[in-house]
Amino acid sequence: MKNKIEKILIIGADGQLGTDLVKVLEKDYQLLTPSIEELDITDFEKTREHIKKHLPDLIINTAAFHNVDECEKNPERSFLVNTLAVKNLAEACKEKDIVLVHISTDYVFGLDRNRKTPYTEDDLPGPVNIYGISKLAGEYCIQYTLDKYFIVRTAGLFGVAGCKEKGRLNFVETMIKLAKEEREIKVKNDEFTSPTYTRELAEQIKELIKTNYYGIYHITNHGECSWYGFAKKIFEILNLKVNCQAVSSSQFQTIAKRPSYSVLENKKLKELDIDRMSHWEEALKKYLKEKGHLR
Q: Which of 162, 172, 187, 206 could be 231's S-S partner, Cβ–Cβ 3.0 to 4.6 Å?
């Protein structure tokens, strides 16, 4: 089944994922890419006016308050951006029969401390911090408001544009930067994730929106690793000699808890036979080449 989509509004088009979505979609669709000054989803009325004025066929919402420790310190802001603004967006989509693609997170999981196998879309969520709770609440708002939606849970993003909130860095760039500056790097070895290349994620979203198989989807690169394992692979591929120490998360003072295991499996993509994601190690090599770190 195909969706007839011509005009797409990307919220957060200058972010890490948004930048790759623009690259991937611009050849085939008419894109609307407002800045945060033009479209701030926490301004509910202005958001609705923008949608009514431009009437896209589909909206991709990449906007989020995702600094996990800041969310813990400022739950009001977290729920404003990640829940209430999403509820408003879903209601605006319902009024005009617009398909909504909403980017969610692996952090809706983590409560099961004994978990050792990847989460599928069928598993019950259980967040361990305010960020995860607010994102899950946003998912629920979409589900009870809309029939036409794709909720995309993903994890450990790295893309060429980098994360705006982190000074245009991501984990890969941070590790490379530290390798050039420090004698010793300490990385957690007891938190496991599915590192995901935003270029491949954007291409997979493009495939998904061609269908009308609405619902929740896990989209990450295949495989899993600890953050320490991720760092070691970066240094190995780039042949960087680094004193990288594996340490427990208890050695890091953080305000918010993190899931010890939040690996996702692309079960529904596989069932539809449209899973195009590569293994995270292959995706990392593609990223390093695109970024110019690797020939």
A: 187
Helix (H, G, I), strand (E, B) or coil at 61: strand
The DSSP line for 81-135 is IIIIHHHHHHHHHHHHT-EEEEEEEGGG----TT--S-B-TTSPP--SSHHHHHH
Domain with 133 in it: 7-167+194-224+262-281
Token digits for 24?
């991937």
Q: CATH code at 96? A: 3.40.50.720
Helix (H, G, I), strand (E, B) or coil at 149: strand
Given the residues 107, 119, 131, 197, select the one marked as catalytic: 131
Residue 186 within any structural domain of the chain: no
Q: Following DSSP, what letter does each residue of 154-221 receive, concatenated?
A: E-SEE-TT-BGGGTTB-HHHHHHHHHHH-SEEEEESS-EE--EEHHHHHHHHHHHTTS---EEEE---
* C-beta atoms surrounding 51 within 10 Å: 21
Whether 179 maps to a domain, the answer reads no
**Catalytic-residue membership of 131:** yes
- Residue 102 inside a domain? The answer is yes
User: Do the domain assignments include residue 38?
Assistant: yes
Angle separating helix axes 227-237 and 280-291, nearest 10 degrees: 50
Question: Residue 225: in which H helix or E strand, if any?
Answer: strand 225-226
How is residue 88 written in tokens? Answer: 């408003």
Count of the separate structural domains present in the chain: 1
Residue 90 — pLDDT band, cuts 50, 70, 90? Answer: very high
Exposure pattern of 238-277 as b/e (b: 16+ CB <10 Å)?
eeeebebeeeeeeeeeeebbbbbbbbbbbbbbeeeebbeb
pLDDT digit string (tens) for 228-278? 999 999 999 999 999 999 999 998 889 999 999 999 999 999 999 999 999
